[in-house]
């Protein structure tokens, strides 16, 4: 894959300054997204996936959060040094974003039409009437029946799946180059989940855009992503092509995640899980952040943090692979 | 909606009947009677007895009440024991004064409260926020008559900027406006403090909602995020407080009218109570209760106008 790079994130660090100390929510994350590529970011709650996405959009609430260092290049332009007004022109226009819970992500007091039209009017120099037609077209595109009527609906008059379709229409109405989907299926029924994933895939192909999808559902990643980042406590643990990761997981954490997926053949067995929970990470944290829960840990893991090591086409952060280079 | 408003207006009847009974009983509980006061300290027992019969005060309480209410149903609020003037006429003039004062101070408190609340929320923990919240604590705790006297001393006596009394009853004229400015600020200050706090806390809660994030992710300007997306959602509790406070403004008018010598319904009530002027007390209280119920109806209608999820059937 040697395609044009759309987004390049380098050593991104986003810290939160709380009363209990500094929390490195995202700690040195680097990756690229090429044109037309779908990147999946997986990890459990609190691993820093959403903060990564919001950092790209520069939507980290400050205080308490702050992007401390790193670089985010979008179409060769550095986003971190852009003014707020310049950043607003990118949000919703070049980079669209959809969120986890469609029930709460739409403003309850405005019609879905108004909310889509607002996005259009900010970024395109068109009048209300034209914007309305485009909004109807966008709703039709995401599979909402009789969009010319639905456009006057309020969010509470729609189901969860419908609302997520509206969110997608709103994020895509200005034909962005990148769609960031922050757990777009987590709050939905399983059948609706599949529909929404298919819709994102279709839209991606239709608009020829790149997608960054954040999820804790490995099934979603397997279904949609070209490449995957596994995050844990703010760090990238593994980064590589989706196919490689599923066929040959490198990091013990990735293996643990894959092992915890229930299968039909495991009749009667107990569901496997990774013991323990995320550590409370502070700036002076020593060693590998996963060490406490790791089944393959050694003494070194508690003292020294492993670097990101290249293994074949993938990257992994584990001492195990240090000698095999 | 029309059906709902009609239903609410019908519900007004039992409320007003309840209020009238309560007031009637209260008048019976306070010592002293109208006949003695009208007759004066030197009157003989016979004279007092004559006046008692003339006013119908010798009849049993329920008869007095029914007689009064049958008049009310015909639009007749009776005649003042004290002056003999028709109660409805006496109230009409003063009601306009009080309503002018209440609406004017409500406007001041809304404008002042909502603006400071928005800025305090948008710049949370800034010096402006702390100042506003400090002033509002003061505003809620300071009694209005004291603020009124303070304003009179500063703006009326020392600086001679504003007149301290003499409202002409016409708020729409420049003269009336100037005369009502200080009373309205006095009355609205406490209310604006409460509205400011409510606006701030309501906005701060809304700002963390997901749809605010969505608006920002669309590229909406921060000012519009706050004023359009957040404020509209924060309005319901703000309007509730405004509605409740309006009742307080009507009650507070009693004190402020005395301080600024405004010929309003509040002062009328105070005078009527000390003279045991039953028809006048009853008429004024009914009028105030009526206004309060109507304001609450307007608040309920506003809810539905703001939030499409609220529907009245």
UniProtKB/TrEMBL annotation, chain A:
PROSITE patterns: ABC_TRANSPORTER_1, ABC_TRANSPORTER_2
Regions crossing the membrane: none
Coiled coil start-end: none
Membrane topology, as annotated: Peripheral membrane protein
SMART domains per record: AAA
GO cellular component terms listed in the entry, alphabetical order: plasma membrane
One annotated GO biological process: peptide transport
Keywords assigned: ATP-binding, Cell membrane, Membrane, Nucleotide-binding, Transport
Example of a GO MF term: ATP binding
Flavoprotein keyword on record: no
Every ABC transporter domain range: 7-258
Keyword Transport listed: yes
CDD domains: ABC_NikE_OppD_transporters
Subcellular location: Cell membrane
Source species, domain of life: Bacteria
NCBIfam families per record: oligo_HPY (TIGR01727)
Protein family (similarity comment): Belongs to the ABC transporter superfamily.
Name recorded for this polypeptide: Oligopeptide transport system ATP-binding protein
Organism the protein comes from: Fonticella tunisiensis
Taxonomic lineage: Bacteria, Bacillati, Bacillota, Clostridia, Eubacteriales
UniProtKB/TrEMBL annotation, chain B:
InterPro entries: BPD_transp_1_N, MetI-like, MetI-like_sf
Keyword Coiled coil on entry: no
PROSITE patterns assigned to the protein according to its UniProt record, in alphabetical order: ABC_TM1 (PS50928)
GO CC terms in record: plasma membrane
ABC transmembrane type-1 domain span: 95-303
Regions crossing the membrane: 12-30, 101-122, 134-157, 177-195, 234-265, 285-306
Listed GO biological process terms: transmembrane transport
Membrane topology: Multi-pass membrane protein
Record-linked Pfam families: BPD_transp_1, BPD_transp_1_N
Superkingdom in the source lineage: Bacteria
Subcellular location: Cell membrane
Record keywords: Cell membrane, Membrane, Transmembrane, Transmembrane helix, Transport
SUPFAM superfamilies per record: MetI-like
UniProt KW Transport keyword: yes
Family: Belongs to the binding-protein-dependent transport system permease family.
Protein name: Peptide/nickel transport system permease protein
């Amino acid at each position: 894959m040697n395609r044009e790079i759309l987004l390049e994130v380098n050593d991104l660090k986003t810290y939160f300054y709380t009363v209990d100390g500094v929390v490195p929510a995202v700690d040195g994350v680097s990756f690229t997204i090429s044109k037309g590529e779908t990147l999946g970011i997986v990890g459990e709650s609190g691993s820093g996936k959403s903060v990564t996405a919001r950092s790209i959009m520069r939507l980290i609430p400050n205080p308490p959060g702050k992007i401390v260092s790193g670089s985010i290049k979008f179409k060769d332009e550095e986003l971190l040094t852009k003014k707020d007004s310049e950043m607003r022109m990118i949000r919703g226009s070049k980079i669209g974003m959809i969120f986890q819970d469609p029930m709460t992500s739409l403003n309850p007091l405005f019609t879905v039409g108004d909310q889509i039209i607002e996005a259009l009017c900010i970024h395109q120099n068109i009048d209300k009437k034209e914007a309305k037609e485009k909004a109807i077209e966008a709703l039709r595109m995401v599979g909402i029946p009789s969009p010319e009527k639905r456009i006057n609906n309020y969010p509470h008059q729609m189901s969860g799946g419908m609302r997520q379709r509206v969110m997608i229409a709103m994020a895509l109405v200005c034909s962005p180059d990148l769609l960031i989907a922050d757990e777009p299926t987590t709050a939905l029924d399983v059948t609706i989940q599949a529909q929404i994933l298919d819709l994102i895939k279709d839209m991606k192909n239709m608009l020829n855009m790149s997608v960054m999808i954040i999820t804790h559902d490995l099934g979603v990643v397997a279904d949609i992503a070209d490449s995957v980042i596994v995050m844990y406590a703010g760090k990238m643990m593994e980064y590589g092509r989706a196919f490689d990761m599923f066929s040959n997981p490198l990091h013990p954490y990735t293996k643990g995640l894959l092992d915890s997926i229930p299968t039909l053949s495991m009749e009667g067995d107990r569901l496997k899980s990774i013991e323990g929970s995320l550590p409370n990470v502070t700036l002076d944290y020593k060693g590998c952040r996963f060490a406490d829960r790791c089944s393959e840990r050694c003494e070194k893991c508690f003292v020294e943090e492993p670097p990101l090591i290249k293994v074949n086409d993938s990257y992994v952060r584990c001492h195990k692979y240090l000698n095999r280079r | 909606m029309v059906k709902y408003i009609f239903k609410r207006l019908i519900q007004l009847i039992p409320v007003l009947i309840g209020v009238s009974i309560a007031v009637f009983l209260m008048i019976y509980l306070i010592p002293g009677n109208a006949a003695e006061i009208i007759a004066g300290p030197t009157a003989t027992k016979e004279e007092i007895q004559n006046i008692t019969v003339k006013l119908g005060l010798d009849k049993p309480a329920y008869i007095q009440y029914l007689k009064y209410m049958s008049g009310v149903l015909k639009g007749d609020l009776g005649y003042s024991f004290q002056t003999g003037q028709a109660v409805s006429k006496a109230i009409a003039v003063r009601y306009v004064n009080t309503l002018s004062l209440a609406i004017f101070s409500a406007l001041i408190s809304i404008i002042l409260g909502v603006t400071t609340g928005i800025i305090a929320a948008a710049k949370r923990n800034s010096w402006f926020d702390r100042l506003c919240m400090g002033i509002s604590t003061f505003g809620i705790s300071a009694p209005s008559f004291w603020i009124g006297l303070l304003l009179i001393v500063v703006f009326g006596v020392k600086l001679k900027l504003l007149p301290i009394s003499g409202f002409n009853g016409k708020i729409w004229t420049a003269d009336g406006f100037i005369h009502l400015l200080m009373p309205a600020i006095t009355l609205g200050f406490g209310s604006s403090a409460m509205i400011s706090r409510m606006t701030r806390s309501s906005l701060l809660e809304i700002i963390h909602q997901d749809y605010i994030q969505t608006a920002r992710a669309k590229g909406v300007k921060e000012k519009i995020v706050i004023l359009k997306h957040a404020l509209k959602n924060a309005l319901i509790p703000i309007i509730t407080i405004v509605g409740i406070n309006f009742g307080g403004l009507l009650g507070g008018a009693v004190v402020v009218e005395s301080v600024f010598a405004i010929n309003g319904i509040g002062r009328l009530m105070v005078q009527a109570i000390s003279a045991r002027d039953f028809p006048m007390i009853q008429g004024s209280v009914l009028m105030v209760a009526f206004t309060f119920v109507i304001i609450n109806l307007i608040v309920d209608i506003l809810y539905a106008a703001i939030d499409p999820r609220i529907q009245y059937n």
